[in-house]
Hints:
It is a single chain. By secondary structure, this protein is an all-alpha fold. It has six helices and no strands. It has helices at 2-38, 41-67, 71-97, 110-119, 123-151, 155-182. α2 (41-67) runs antiparallel to α3, α2 (41-67) runs antiparallel to α5 (123-151) and α5 runs antiparallel to α6 (155-182). The chain is elongated and about 85 Å long.
Amino acid sequence: MKIARVLPLLFAAALCCLVTSQIRAADDEKKDNDQSKNLADTDKQFVMEAAEGGRAEVQLGKLAQKQSENDDVKKFGEMMATDHSAANKELNKIAKSKGVDTKSTHSGGKHDAMVAQLKTLKGADFDKAYMGMMIKDHQEDIEKFQQEATSGSDADVKAYAAKTLDTLKKHLDKAKEVGAKVGAEGGSAPS
């Protein structure tokens, strides 16, 4: 007889726990969505552009390893793929914590055009075009990352921009150095 009285109570307690866990999960999801709303539009735009640019750098770096016949260009491409893969992982982690999905957005345009153009080239022609693009692209990226690092609203995004800025500057210096060797526009000897 005691079991008959306890079973309904156990069932009710289990049901209560289940409902409570579902409510908590819904609250957590709502908080994640609210975090995205708290991210300023300029910070969100920076995150999205940085994610897309980072993916392009990885893709182009891998392409350089295939299309180039110059060891310096191949090494530069390898560095791009490695460094930007690591930066992308860090940015995606920050974005996810802010409720921003960086993987679903793709604006195409500039990066797709770069990839399409470079896929048609090989050897010295590829090297010159790729290194010229890398110089120009990193100059533009440094400006954007500097702007975010100094004027961004979100502390995590600002810190990411500031940290990544040093890597981008090293990439630009190396791009200019390698670019000078292959005759790329904007290439120059290291200072």
